[in-house]
Specification:
Elements: H1 20-32, H2 38-49, H3 55-64, E1 68-71, E2 73-75, H4 80-92, H5 98-102, E3 103-112, E4 121-124, E5 135-137, E6 145-152, E7 161-163, H6 169-185, E8 192-194, H7 199-202, H8 204-212, E9 216-217, H9 230-244, H10 251-261
Helix pairs in contact: 2-3, 9-10
GO molecular function, one term: DNA binding
GO biological process, one term: DNA transposition
Domain Transposase Tc1-like: 23-93
Length: 262
């Protein structure tokens, strides 16, 4: 370099801490177990090569191969006996328009004190969201929290009902349908009532309640919460509650926050 001139200094890049063989093993581990963490892969590579590898390096290698960490899709396990009625139900109502304005979608939902924050990630390529290995099955075990009943229509919504303990058919009528839904029904010209196939909903006494009042029920396929728009509302409420409710909150505090939010 001559005096009075400038030139770009050639910078040396750090040596690659993984070989091409290591990179293939990294990708293979992520594809074999989609929910494996970068830290776990790094520990495995270190145990094999005896060289330290950071979780950040693992993430970089996976991204270079087209794999990205994304939230796992949650879904219920379905058999062919579930899929056929669901498909038939959708085909029968695919071209209907006016009926949806008359439907009141109802459901119970449990909001837990310990929120699922969506931190379960899976490694996947673009377009692999519905791949079975990238899907986490939903669990239905009870957790500490509160259960509420609610309903939404095209232009309105039901008042919320907090349900303590186990909901049976008699309580469903006495605590939900008679004091809450029937007054709400008075302000609507026509109503088609939607509920899922939970035992309190399909009990003979409950079915007789709707028949006596001449309330039309919407047939509902089994294990199909994803077909109801109220599930989207519950998801938005749960996400909002995680922002305003502490992890140490009691069920009563959670219900108080719920009332404030709504």
């Amino acid at each position: 370099m001559q005096e009075g001139t400038t030139d770009r200094r050639v910078r040396s890049h750090p040596p690659e801490c993984t070989t091409s063989r290591d990179d293939r093993n990294i990708v293979r581990m992520a594809v074999t177990d989609r929910s494996v963490t970068s830290r776990t892969i790094a520990q495995h590579i270190k145990s094999v090569t005896h060289y330290p590898v950071s979780a950040r390096t693992i993430g970089s290698r996976l991204q270079q191969s087209g794999l990205s960490a994304r939230r796992a899709l949650l879904r219920l396990s379905l058999t062919q006996n579930h899929r056929r009625p669901r498909r038939q139900w959708c085909d029968e109502r695919r071209m209907r328009t006016t009926e949806w304005n008359e439907i009141v979608f109802t459901d119970e939902s449990r909001f837990c004190l310990q929120h699922h924050n969506g931190r379960i990630r899976v490694w996947r390529h673009r377009g692999e969201r519905m791949l079975n290995s990238c899907v986490m099955h939903r669990h239905t075990d009870l957790a500490p929290g509160i259960m509420v009943w609610g309903g939404i229509g095209y232009h309105s919504r039901n008042p919320l009902v907090r349900i303590s303990g186990t909901l049976n058919s008699q309580r469903y009528i006495c605590e939900v349908l008679e004091p809450v839904f029937l007054p709400y029904l008075q302000g609507l010209p026509t109503v088609i009532f939607q509920q899922d196939n939970a035992r309190p909903h399909v009990a003979r006494i409950v079915q007789g309640f709707f028949v006596n009042l001449q309330i039309e029920l919407l047939p509902w396929p089994a294990r199909s919460p994803d077909l109801s728009p109220i599930e989207d509302m519950w998801s938005m409420v749960a996400e909002r509650l995680t922002q305003i409710t502490s992890q140490a909150a009691t069920p009563d505090q959670l219900w108080k926050d719920y009332l404030i939010f709504k």
